[in-house]
Amino acid sequence: MSDTEADAPCSACGDPTPDALSRTVRLSVDRANIDTQRLCPDCFAEWIARYQREMETETDPVDGGGDHSDIIVD
Question: Which domain of life is it from (predicted)?
Fold first, then answer.
């Protein structure tokens, strides 16, 4: 692997991110890849925090609310 592949940029901030530190977020619907993002640790942490905030504020149309405690983010 070349140095340019090992330090590919973060999709959010553009900083070079070594493979050992990068996280990949993939969005798939019905097994079709919709989006893939390579994120540095800081941008990944912000992505997780934003995802959790958005999930907490949504209401469930079936029960009118809910805390979404069954959502697991690894």
Answer: Archaea
Distance CA 50, CA 12 (A): 13
Q: Which pLDDT value is given to residue 56?
A: 85
C-alpha distances in Å from residue 13, one per residue of 31, 42, 57, 61: 28, 9, 26, 35
Structure tokens at 50: 């934003």
Query: Considering the entire predicted model, what is its pTM?
Result: 0.63
User: Tokens 């890849």 — which residue?
Assistant: 33
CB 12 within 8 A of CB 43: yes
CA-based nearest residue to 23, from 38, 34, 10: 38
Q: Is the pLDDT of residue 38 over 80?
A: yes
